[in-house]
């Protein structure tokens, strides 16, 4: 009987536990699906970057490459090489046999190539100039702050030097002490405290 009673109590305990678990599962299922799957939004963290349709690239690396190209386009070596290529292009398409010419007069392909080169060169040069302007702006800002610090230091040193001069003006110098002693000796001689020095004493 005791075993049966214990078994019945255990069965009742297990059934109550199962019913509580089923109620918890039902309450969690009643929650809106979006609320269960949505991540917690935190304001102290930046939002994750969304993936776009355009390919990603490093703007700094592209800017450095554009500056290198713009520097090369602004050199005399580029002008010389471009002139040599154009001369060879024209001479080949004029003097070469007909079946070897790839750009007949009026050299439409050469015009297209030069136009394409100019259309890419202009934005690259503008990008390099913008980066240089940004660097110049940063350097000017740093120079302005450095000048402000230098002016503040100079004003502080000027005030300190003026304070030292005012303090030195109140310090007793050796000449001033000597003159004061001489005046004191003259005053004592006039009062007769001790006789003045005579020529016989000097002898």
Automatic annotation (TrEMBL):
Q: Which domain of life is it from?
A: Bacteria
Compositionally biased tracts (Basic and acidic residues):
1-25, 32-41
One Pfam family name is DUF1003
Q: Which region ranges are annotated with the description Disordered?
A: 1-41
Q: Which residues cross the membrane?
A: 78-95, 107-127
Q: Which InterPro entries match?
A: DUF1003
Kindly state which keywords UniProt assigns to this record, in alphabetical order: Membrane, Transmembrane, Transmembrane helix
Entry protein name: DUF1003 domain-containing protein
């Amino acid at each position: 009987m005791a075993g049966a009673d214990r078994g019945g109590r255990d069965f009742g305990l297990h059934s109550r536990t199962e019913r509580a678990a089923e109620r918890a599962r039902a309450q969690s299922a009643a929650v809106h699906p979006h609320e269960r799957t949505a991540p917690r939004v935190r304001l102290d963290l930046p939002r994750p970057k969304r993936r776009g349709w355009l390919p990603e690239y490093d703007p700094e690396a592209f800017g450095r490459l554009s500056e290198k190209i713009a520097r090369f386009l602004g050199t005399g070596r580029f002008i010389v090489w471009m002139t040599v290529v154009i001369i060879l292009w024209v001479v080949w398409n004029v003097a070469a046999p007909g079946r070897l010419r790839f750009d007949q007069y009026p050299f439409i392909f050469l015009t297209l190539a030069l136009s394409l080169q100019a259309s890419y060169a202009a934005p690259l040069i503008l990008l390099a100039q913008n980066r240089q302007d940004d660097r110049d702006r940063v350097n000017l800002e740093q120079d302005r702050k450095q000048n402000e610090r230098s002016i503040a230091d100079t004003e502080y040193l000027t005030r300190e030097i003026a304070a030292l001069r005012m303090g030195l003006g109140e310090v007793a110098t050796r000449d001033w002490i000597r003159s004061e002693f001489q005046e004191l000796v003259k005053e004592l001689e006039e009062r007769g405290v001790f006789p003045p020095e005579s020529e016989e004493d000097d002898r």
